[in-house]
Amino acid sequence: MAAASETIQMISRLAPLSDVTAMVDLRVKAVTPRTLDVAAASGRALAVDAMAPPRPTAALALIDGWALAADATLGAALHNPLPLVHPPQRIEAGQPLPPDADAVAPFHAVSSANGLSKVLATVNPGDGVLQAGGDSDPLIPLRRAGERMRPTDIAAFAAIGLSRVAVREPRIRVLPLRGSSFISAAARLLADDIERRGGAAKLDDAGRDLGTILASEAADAVVVIGGTGSGRNDTCVHTLSRECELAVHGMAISPGETAALGFAGPRPLLLLPGRLDAALAVWLTVGRRIQDRLAGIPGGERQLSEPLTLSRKLSSTVGLCEIVPVRRIQNSVDPLASKYLPLSALTRSDGWILVPAEIDGYAEGAIVHVRPWP
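User: That's the sequence. What structure does it adopt?
Assistant: Structure tokens below.
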């Protein structure tokens, strides 16, 4: 019996989530930057501030209308039209302003008859004008290092004329240890999330030898799904301990307590439970943090959340961070499950909340921050 018990993967202590993320921040380093075409950089984190020359180099019309000097319109109104000494020049959007003009009035603000032009509204300096440097200021970054490129950024960069950017694109290998539908589904979900968030995911076939994967240098991080518990066939934590450095086995995250974290030199190795809910919970709280550090995002990317009111009391275990799916009902949310998250709770939910380890839950009416699922 003693010999058999030695092969069982036992957890002696659940590491607090704050300790795990602190270890990630300390030990996971940003990958080497690479240069990509702007069009291919969606989701990637910038390695350096993105700068652009001043654009436009001269003041341009923002609207079609009349280019004129704003001072000449002071006090003008429909009931008090003012004659213009110099006829205004017609101008189209995108054209440079004439030297004596500092505003563009809409067509209906000026009337002309018998060779005499009158202005019918007061126009302020700069109205209808894009000033020099208005689109891009060479002293202000378009996006800063560590920020991810969004589709809007890509369009703006292309319009300004930036064709290439330096980014960090972590290569993350995802290994489903077994071919069960739960593990395969979790592996595909994580690989898709890695790609959406600017990484390059390699999804291995189920059943690949873990020792060979850990010895491979073809990735900046490895995520293994399955085999972290104490079952007869659960050996991946022992393999990690034997082949590399086991830093943590057991995390105070519910669901996901059996997760493990290790390192092969500087490369992080994250072992996730084989249940979909547990793998997802640990990925959201720890895996994304690893990817962010590899991408050079200090402290992890700020997760967008929406403050909403909890519809009923939610109890939680002190000492465990808990992921809870919630369903939105107007401006409140209803918790759907805890501890074990059924697949139906995931599909019926509109997002998730994190209950910190230091509290025993939330009272009815408490404000909670709802985050979207991948």
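Residues 1-5 have pLDDT under 50 and may be disordered.
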